[in-house]
Amino acid sequence: MDFMQRIRAFFAKLTYGAYGSDQLGKVTLYGSLILLFLSFALGSTICWYLSIAGYVWTIFRMFSRNREKRAAENALYLQKTEKLRTEIRQARVRFRNRKQYKYFKCPQCGTRMRLTRGCGEKNVCCPKCKNTFKMKA
Ligand SMILES: [Zn+2]
């Protein structure tokens, strides 16, 4: 076995059965990166230690062979952040379509609605609370 074959065999053995990357892993990786930048920007040693701890945890999870436990951690993360992730995803869609639609909230219940831009003043009826009001787009 030559040197390159040994290296390949070493990595194949290292990653065999490894859990790999998931959504929680990406968040901890990017979070650690942000903490690393903050530690340099603010000269904070606490941020540096938290960043290193984040990297260690990310690498531990990626190479872990306890797939059920890692998947359960990821599922818990996804469940706890679902509302926030939905809010961010919808905000991105609203930003992308901002030239096509005017977005607004119902003044009574806060339900988000949209009108096609250029449609003029319309009577809008909220689908949730049936409040009717005028909106110009
Ligand atoms: Zn409403």
Structure summary:
With 137 residues, the chain is α+β, with helices and mostly antiparallel strands. The protein contains five helices and four strands, in the order αααααββββ.
Description:
- The protein is an alpha+beta fold and 137 residues long.
- The chain has two domains: 78 residues; 39 residues, no CATH class.
- The protein is built from five helices and four strands, in the order H-H-H-H-H-E-E-E-E.
- Helix 2 packs antiparallel against helix 3.
Distance between the termini: 71 Å
What Rg, in angstroms, do the CA atoms define?
24 Å
For the report, how would you describe the main beta sheet? 2 strands, antiparallel
Q: Specify the structural class.
A: alpha+beta
**Run of helices and strands:** HHHHHEEEE
**General form:** elongated
Helix content range of the residues, please? 55-70%
Overall pLDDT score: 95
**Strands of the largest sheet, in order across it?**
1-2
> Which parts are unreliable, with pLDDT below 50 for 5 consecutive residues or more?
none
Which labels suit this protein?
137 residues; alpha+beta; binds zinc ion
SSE layout and pairing:
Elements: H1 3-15, H2 23-42, H3 45-63, H4 67-80, H5 82-96, E1 101-105, E2 112-116, E3 121-125, E4 132-136
Antiparallel strand pairs: 1-2, 3-4
The structure holds zinc ion.
The site of zinc ion has 8 residues, from loops.
